[in-house]
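pls design
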């Protein structure tokens, strides 16, 4: 597996995660996951955290590409995870969604929990409704702003303020603007842009404090497959 190391020091490894790669196994997965390849290159990761995550600080879905943080020791793992828990980490994503979003900016605040009808999905629950009393629901906040509008799609910069499973995908589908290419949260007869073979979601930036108290921002360029999709839209979706 080829992946670029964006940054490395004694405490932190920053990976540019490719799409179509599982970060760590959660169910019965026969193929190697990203953590397997990382341990081959950095054997000491076996001593960090607990399996199967080891030093993985946060998660990206299989078909989401971009910046992924990995702690190289237990002290660093705790240090970085606390920042995520305290909502001090700034995460930035690019998402291409189906349809035209009218507002230039928006904020989605709901509860999120497992969809009782399909275990692989998450579901939005609105606060102050009878359903919101269910166990296991957690607050989820997502902010977004429009980068560019096409005829049938909108390119967004998305800033999740919480880190729930499938949060961005679930929230944008809740707005009736699912992410282009998303196989789980897609709508019936949802169009797919020319050349897109996965969900158009890329984690392009993370800003976080390091143990030496400096603030670092790590960035990942938009992968070539997604760049090509935008180029096609420029030509055919005006």
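designed seq:
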């Amino acid at each position: 597996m080829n992946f670029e190391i964006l940054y490395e020091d004694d405490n932190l490894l920053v990976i540019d995660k490719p799409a179509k790669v599982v970060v760590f196994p959660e169910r019965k997965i026969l193929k190697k996951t990203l953590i397997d390849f990382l341990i081959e290159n950095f054997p000491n990761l076996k001593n960090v955290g607990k399996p199967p995550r080891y030093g993985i600080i946060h998660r990206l879905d299989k078909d989401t590409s971009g910046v992924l943080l990995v702690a190289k020791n237990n002290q660093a793992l705790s240090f970085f995870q606390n920042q995520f828990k305290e909502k001090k980490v700034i995460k930035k994503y690019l998402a291409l969604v189906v349809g035209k979003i009218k507002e230039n900016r928006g904020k989605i605040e709901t509860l999120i929990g497992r969809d009782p009808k399909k275990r692989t999905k998450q579901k939005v629950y609105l606060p102050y409704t009878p359903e919101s009393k269910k166990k296991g629901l957690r607050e989820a906040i997502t902010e977004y702003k429009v980068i560019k509008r096409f005829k049938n799609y909108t390119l967004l910069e998305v800033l999740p303020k919480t880190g729930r499973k499938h949060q961005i995908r679930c929230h944008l589908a809740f707005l009736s603007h699912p992410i282009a290419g998303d196989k789980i949260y897609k709508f019936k007869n949802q169009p797919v842009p020319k050349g897109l073979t996965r969900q158009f979601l890329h984690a392009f930036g993370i800003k976080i404090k390091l143990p030496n108290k400096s603030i670092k921002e790590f960035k990942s360029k938009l992968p070539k497959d997604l760049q090509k999709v935008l180029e096609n839209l420029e030509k055919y979706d005006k």
